[in-house]
Write a structure and sequence with these properties.
This protein has 644 residues and is an alpha/beta fold. It is built from 22 helices and 29 strands.
């Protein structure tokens, strides 16, 4: 590390350096009321400074925590930087969290301050304030609907900045001294994990963790100051904190905040980012939109697109497998780029992409090949909150379908005797906040126990099989890897979520959530009327559709000697979507298996019985905390399993 880099060891110092180096370069944009608003690095530094001084005027002390709640907004990123400038620790929370979830984290993190987006978040925090005795101030950005609120703890962001300007007059060197006092080993952020098996844990990441891994990844992947990214994933997720906030500051590129979650795909087209991350579900949505539009196209155009896409995908499969590329498809590639691939990339907003990642879950081979065939440099990334994201990434020119790539520079990976992936790196976290026992279970002698089962192949590529604790056996001894099977099911555009059951059972069964948009479109084209998700999910035609998708997965398992005996024999389509508010999945869409097994025990037992239908009542929780009950007559479907 150079002397200059060692002096710029915290984000507030880096923001100040960026404001001096690129005062007029756009640092962040936000789409508001249909218009993109741009803010330079000078703006970024000045707004963060005013917010920090405003917090100081309220008595903010080094080590204090600030809860950050809302959609991706410049003001919230500035609040993160402002908190860090004072030696405090930001604690971002999921904006769609219900009150119980917010109360646990705000209280556990000992947050004195909260900076939130709007009335929705203000209401939730006011309702839980009695459960969070340390919470003193709730500061909001958007004042709409809050005119009549008179709670003394409430303060608008505009008022806070005014206080900051007044505070600065009497304390001219206060903030610069606070920034100078910060160091690389200070805690930069606490990111709470999703809590699949219990209460969320607060992972403490230092500036050394985040700045070092951001620099390593930016250099390895060739990120530049002129890159553009779309910041649309939850700020509470470590991926956004690193890929948007940390890397944006370290590299100096521009991040763009969409108008709302509903406009992300439209805003993506307008921005045309060069650096883009999306979990498999987003890539699935993009592909589904393409397929729907293709079905609406005239016959000649549809055939032309199918011809060139088929050739491009065949070429890409050969390229990924290291096989020779036929001459004719290579010669036709430029024509396909002009007629099909280029216009498609442009329509999706991906024409300028240089680097694209997918992570979180396995991505379907067909989907992965489709986007790479369009000329998009899509790569798989493997990471964790406790690693400051980056563990392994596929290298340019060394991308494979069945791996998550090779270790990042300065990252070491080894496999335990039990087959668990272990790693250590400069990004390894400091520990879990107020949870030394969980820290000891995860972190030992600098090595992180990932909890994932996997192996390194002969070329040094990492392959992930499943969560180590979830790998078990069927009653007959066949290995059962539920997540592996669930990911294969979710490769279908018609399957949004799946939970496979089989441990100590005679065969594998599955609970399936359909994708309402994709299946709804499929149903409308066939004149199948429906009134709701519950109604559509139990239609016999939909059962047949999903039956075909399950049979497809079983067909792929026949090729695997180890897992061939774990084919899915029965399934049912759940009458409701698995929902974080109902505690069935986490905010990052990880299945809470124990809770699902308990809640749907009657359905699971029916799958292993002789009935072809079962009546079920299910409690649902609304965002305001109210509950209701959904009753449905759920159909149980058999799937033919071919003998080998």
């Amino acid at each position: 590390m150079t002397t200059i880099e060692s002096a710029l060891d915290t984000f507030p110092k880096l923001v100040r350096a960026n404001a001096e180096r690129w005062p007029d370069k756009v640092a962040i944009r936000e789409k508001d009321f249909g218009i993109w608003q741009s803010y330079t690095w000078r703006d970024y530094e000045q707004r963060a400074r005013r917010i920090a001084l405003g917090l100081a005027s309220l008595g903010f002390a080094r080590g204090d925590k600030t809860a950050i709640v809302g959609d991706n907004r410049p003001e919230l990123y500035w609040a993160v930087a402002a908190t860090q400038a004072l030696g405090g620790v930001p604690v971002p929370l999921y904006q769609d969290s219900i009150e119980k979830e917010l109360a646990y984290i705000v209280d556990h993190a000992e947050a004195r301050f909260a900076v939130v987006e709007d009335q929705e978040q203000v209401d939730k925090l006011l309702h839980i304030k009695a459960q969070c005795p340390r919470l003193e101030y709730v500061i909001y950005d958007d004042p709409r609907g809050l005119r009549s609120y008179s709670e003394p703890c409430l303060l608008s962001l505009a008022e806070l900045e005014e206080r900051g300007e007044k505070f600065a007059l009497g304390h001219p060197g206060y903030l610069d001294d606070a920034i100078a006092h910060g160091g690389s080993d200070d805690t930069a952020v606490i990111c709470y994990t999703s809590g699949t098996t219990g209460s969320p844990k607060g992972a403490m990441l230092s500036y050394r963790n985040l700045v070092t891994m951001s620099r390593i990844a930016s250099e390895r992947e060739g990120l530049r100051p002129d890159d553009e990214s779309l910041a649309y994933l939850p700020m509470a997720w470590v991926g956004d904190h690193v890929l948007s906030y940390a890397q944006g500051i370290v590299t100096g590129f521009t991040i763009n905040c969409p108008e709302s979650a509903a406009t992300v795909l439209h805003d993506l087209k307008e921005i045309g980012p060069t650096y883009f991350f999306a979990p498999p579900r987003i890539w699935e949505n993009l592909l589904t939109n393409v397929m729907i539009r293709l079905e609406d196209a005239a016959w000649p155009k549809r055939k032309l697109v199918q011809l060139f896409l088929g050739q491009a995908q065949d070429l890409e499969r050969r390229r990924l497998a290291g096989r020779p590329l036929p001459l004719l498809p290579r010669l036709l590639r430029p024509l396909g780029a002009a007629l099909v691939y280029g216009p498609l990339r442009d329509n999706l907003g991906l024409r300028r992409i240089r680097i694209a990642y997918t992570a979180g879950e396995a991505i379907g081979p067909e989907m992965f090949v489709f986007f790479r065939a369009l000329g998009i440099n899509l790569k798989q990334l493997y990471g964790m909150t406790e690693a400051s994201v980056f563990v392994a990434v596929q290298k340019d020119g060394d991308v494979r379908l069945d791996t998550v790539g090779t270790p990042m520079p300065q990252v070491e990976i080894r496999i335990s005797e039990q087959g668990e992936v272990l790693f250590r790196s400069p990004g390894v976290f400091k520990g879990y906040f107020k949870n030394p026992e969980a820290t000891r279970q995860t972190l030992e002698d600098g090595w992180i126990r990932s909890g994932d089962a996997g192996f390194l192949d002969a070329s040094g590529h990492l392959k992930i099989i499943d969560r180590a604790k979830d790998v078990s056996r069927l009653a007959g001894g066949t290995i059962f890897a539920p997540k592996y099977l669930e990911n294969k099911l979710k490769f279908s555009p018609y399957v949004k979520e799946a939970v496979c059951i089989g441990q100590d059972r005679p065969f594998v069964t599955a609970l399936v959530n359909i994708d309402l948009v994709a299946v709804g479109n499929w149903a409308e084209r066939r004149g199948i009327a429906y009134t709701s998700y519950t109604d559509l999910s139990q239609r016999p035609e939909v059962s047949e559709l999903i039956q075909g998708e399950v049979a497809r997965v079983n067909g792929t398992l026949l090729e695997d000697e180890v897992l061939a005996g774990a084919r899915i024999c029965k399934f049912l389509i759940l009458h409701k979507e698995l929902d974080p508010d109902d505690e069935e999945i986490t905010r990052t869409r990880k299945v809470r298996r124990g809770y699902v097994a308990q809640k749907y025990a009657a359905l699971i037992e029916a799958l292993y019985g002789e009935r072809d239908r079962v009546t079920v009542d299910a409690k649902v929780t609304y965002e305001d905390g109210r509950t209701g009950v959904i009753r449905a007559d759920v159909r149980i479907c058999d799937v033919a399993v071919d003998a080998r």
